[in-house]
Amino acid sequence: MVEVPDSLPARMFLLAYDARKQKMAKGGSQLGYVLRAAALTELYLDGRLGEERRRPVPGTPGDDPYGLLAQIAASRPRSWQHWIRKDSRAMVATIRDELVRGGWIRVRRRRAWGLFPCHQVTVRDPRVVKELWGGASAALRGRPVAHVNSYDAAAVALAAAGELKTVLPGADRRRHKRRIEELTARSGPAAPAVRKVIRAQNAAAAG
User: Fold this and answer.
1) Residue among 183, 150, 181, 180 at smallest CA distance from 168
2) pLDDT tens digits for 70-119?
3) pTM
4) Within a domain: 56
5) How far apart are alpha carbons 73 and 59 in whole angstroms?
6) What is the DSSP letter of 121?
7) Which residues share a beta bridge with 116?
């Protein structure tokens, strides 16, 4: 079996990579929303984050690798959507740098169209992306929901909410709608919240 990163945000970053085109399929704020939601989901699944009145609250003390628990503890109660939007672009850089340090990806700085600075990401071993995709695919089509690995279930929930077509093309999201809802229910409040954030962003862009 191919080794994959331990953290859910790192896994979601790699799942947003299009191995066929050898480039990131998602970037900017939308990927940041997915990564923030992944970090919140990881904390929630581990019991380090709870929920009161539909808002996240600190749970059992533990590691806070991305500083989200400290942010939430220092703030008045705010919605899941608030914490998904906050520092979303910075989260992309944080996870990208983490994956570079871990030897999972290479990053080359360049200028798009010769003007705009951007980062060209290359996954060092495409089998890692394939392994992660296989876990998500099995969660979508395989064993009963209660027996699915919690990170694979969360990957499907977050990919659906974040419109990651590398994992779930639109046709698959429609075909497996019921199963996705069941996996989302297992994964906590962050995935539904990221869907609301992205829908609001799309509506604002269209209006």
Assistant:
1) 180
2) 999 999 999 999 999 999 999 999 999 999 999 999 999 877 656 667 78
3) 0.93
4) yes
5) 10
6) E
7) 112
Does any domain span residue 206? no
Q: How far apart are CA 26 and CA 23, in angstroms?
A: 9
Q: Which long-range contacts (CB under 8 A, 24 or more apart) does 98-106 make?
A: 98/7, 98/10, 99/5, 99/10, 99/13, 99/14, 102/5, 102/10, 104/5, 104/10, 104/14, 104/128, 105/14
Contact (Cβ atoms closer than 8 angstroms) between residue 132 and residue 28:
no
At residue 73, φ and ψ (nearest 5 deg) are -65, -30
Q: Specify the CATH number for the domain of residue 166.
A: 1.10.3630.10
> What length does the chain have?
207
Please give the structure tokens belonging to residue 4: 């994959």
Handedness of CA 174, 178, 183, 186 (dihedral sign): positive
- Cβ-proximal residues to 16 (8 Å cutoff; 6+ apart), any chain: 24, 25, 26, 27, 31, 34, 164, 166
Cβ count near 52 (within 10 Å): 8
Let me know if residue 1 belongs to a domain: no
Matching residue, tokens 């700085």: 109
Helices (H), 143-176: 150-161, 170-175
